[in-house]
Amino acid sequence: MTFDTAFLWVVTLLPIVISPGPANILFAASGSTFGVKGTVPFWLGANITGLFQSVTVGFCIDYIVSVSPRILDGIKYAGVVFLLYLAVKFFKMSCREGQILKPLGFKDGVIVELLNAKFLLVPTIMFSQFYTPGPGSAQRIVGLALALLMLTLTTNMIWIVGGNSLAAFVANARHQKAQGVLFGSLLTVTAIWLGWQG
Fold it and tell me: 124: which DSSP letter?
């Protein structure tokens, strides 16, 4: 990949992967609530799953979706339901005092990413714009997927650290309740918006 192509790749994909979406809102919420260290398992789960999704898209998802578009609808609506479930967890956090909350773990990151229809668009866009079939295809697919992994690891950490910087602000119970309502509301609005798309 030339410098010009790499620059175009970043300029094309950066706004998509850093924009607010289900996973990024959860990264900020988790970073704010549990700190960077407490969010790392969730971050790794989401990003490792994203890598496998990217490779899958590179090899076959475009064909599967072209044959049966309902598969993408099923993923989208399962993701909406999971986002609403997570929103309820944040709303409950805003109502409970003195309760010890567990950070989102690796398994939660896997589930969020599997059901994150927005993320499936990223490798689809990437491969449609920056992949040319031919000799060495497998290496190019894996190389692009690894480059996307590096980009998402970095941008997700920005959301986690940004959320963590809010931790001092939300240290008291009143602010924690407001945070639960804020993040629960953001996830609810995101779920509703995603449900109405398509």
Answer: H
* Model pTM score: 0.68
DSSP structure class, residue 168: T
Q: Report the run of H or E that residue 177 belongs to, with start and end.
A: helix 173-196
For 136-166, write each residue's pLDDT tens digit: 888 888 999 999 999 999 999 998 998 877 6
The Cα–Cα gap between 34 and 137 comes to: 41
Q: Which residues contact 87 (CB under 8 A, 6 or more apart)?
A: 183, 184, 185, 187, 188, 191
d(CA 3, CA 83): 38
Digit-coded pLDDT (tens) for 49-83:
999 999 988 887 556 656 776 776 776 677 677 66
Q: What CA–CA distance (Å, rounded) separates 74 from 79?
A: 8
DSSP 59: I
- Identity of residue 164: N
